[in-house]
């Protein structure tokens, strides 16, 4: 690893020597930004989160809304017992 780093530093582009941020803060232009916190990405993330929250609230509102009463049926309702054959009791003793 030492040989690799020595080789890299021999070929690396030279930069001016500075005190860095040891005694004074660096200017904003020297900041490193990988784009993870860019303004546009934060806005997109917030808008997606907002749409998800609104969709969730709409789903909850639909589930919790009062249901209309069921109209009375004009025909008799058959229960499951009406479709089963009559039970016969047998004594096994």
The low-confidence parts are: none
N-to-C order of helices and strands: HHH
The residue fraction in helices comes out at 40-55%
Question: How many individual helices?
Answer: 3
The share of residues in extended strands comes to: under 5%
The residue-averaged pLDDT reads 77
Number of distinct beta strands: 0
Alpha carbon gap, first and last residue: 91 Å
Describe the structure.
The protein is elongated and about 100 Å long. The protein has helices at 2-11, 39-64, 80-83. 0% of the residues are buried. It is mainly α and 93 residues long. The model has no long low-confidence stretch (mean pLDDT 77). It is 43% helix and 0% strand.
Compile the SSE list and pairings.
Elements: H1 2-11, H2 39-64, H3 80-83
Task: Give a brief rundown of this model.
The chain has 93 residues and is mainly α. The chain is 43% helix and 0% strand.
Keywords for this entry:
mainly alpha, 43% helix, 93 residues
